Amino acid sequence: MKYRQLEAILRRVDEHYADYPHFVKQYALTTAGIAGEEEVFYFLQELTIPHQLLRNFCLVDYTGHRHEIDFIVIFSSFIICLEVKNITGQLDFNVETSQLLRTRSDGMIERFSNPVEQLVRHTRFLSTLFPHVPIVGAVVIANRRAIIGNHDSHIPIFHADYIHSFIEKNLNQYTKPILDIAVFHKQLTALHSPISKPFSFTLAHLKSGVFCAKCSVKMKFIQGKFVCSQCHHQDKLAHFQALHDFRLLVSSKITNQQFCQLCDITSRYAAKRLLKFLPVVQQGRATYYEIPEQILTMTSYEGCISPD
């Protein structure tokens, strides 16, 4: 959700918005994080021993604090929690000061929060939920150019290509089957509590218009289709992206008037034809159209657009 929202923010929120530079930075960090997870997932996909995998798993503890765990791997005799970091440079971990120091190639030293402490919090909470289950944790460095330096932790820290050896080592240690993998996976999944909407905006914060998928220029609505004035690309369904962004950033429901403002369409009758395929929701005297989550996968709808 967060990544898709950040993508929508960079597309749709004006660059002069006060927090826009913050969102640009968050997008870069989130993109790097996803790339790191993909590196780890590549190795986890090669596992042949029976297991279940949970990715980007989120739990809320008794105090309301969230535990966002990159990977949980469930085996019949134990479970593994993996905290993934996609950082380059020399990485020195210090448990006493709870920090990760990264020394860049130019000699600059930067401080990051210590992923070891994050992981300890996750495994400690899981242990309170399942005290009979052995829980093993590890920090995985996904960037192949990173150098793992000092670390004074009992938590293993290693590169992604060591995952199989780490799992094999623990399989040799925890040999007694105590879990029905499918049942335990279902129990954990029931506890998943994803963040529904990290960022929230109003329509006033968003750029108006429908933008060309080929060159990002604002399109004009002419005779039932959107036309790009620069590359001349034409698309009857170009407004789907605008609706998708509105759903991510504002609301899953939109009125005719809001749609006209969002897509910069002057005719409410043309807007009504473009919205005709959406389910209608009546709230008091107002009519809303429900934007489906899968709107970008919809490729056509017949009889819903006619020339303006």
List the main descriptive attributes of the protein structure presented here.
2 domains, 32% helix, alpha+beta, 4-stranded mixed sheet, 308 residues, Arc Repressor Mutant, subunit A, single chain
Strand content: 15-25%
C-alpha-based Rg, rounded: 24 Å
Q: Structural class of the secondary structure composition?
A: alpha+beta
For the largest sheet, list the strands in their spatial order.
Answer: 1-2-3-7-9
Low-confidence stretches: 301-308
Total domain count:
2
Question: How many β-strands, per DSSP?
Answer: 15
Question: Main β-sheet: number of strands, strand sense, barrel status?
Answer: 5 strands, mixed
The overall pLDDT, averaged over residues, is 90
- Count, helices: 8
Sum up the overall morphology in one term: elongated
**What proportion of the residues is helical, as a percent range?**
25-40%
* Helix-strand topology string: HHEEEEEEHEEEHHEEEHEHHEE
Distance between the termini: 35 Å
Structure description:
The protein is α+β, with helices and mostly antiparallel strands and 308 residues long. It is 32% helix and 25% strand. It has 8 helices and 15 strands. It has helices at 2-12, 20-44, 115-129, 163-173, 181-191, 239-249, 256-263, 268-274, and strands at residues 52-60, 66-74, 79-85, 90-94, 99-103, 109-113, 135-141, 147-151, 157-159, 219-222, 225-228, 234-235, 253-254, 280-283, 286-290. Strands 1-2-3-7-9 form a 5-stranded mixed sheet, sandwiched between helices. Strands 6-5-4-8 form a 4-stranded mixed sheet. A 3-stranded antiparallel sheet has the order 10-11-12, with no helix packed on it. The chain is elongated. Mean pLDDT is 90; it is low at 301-308.
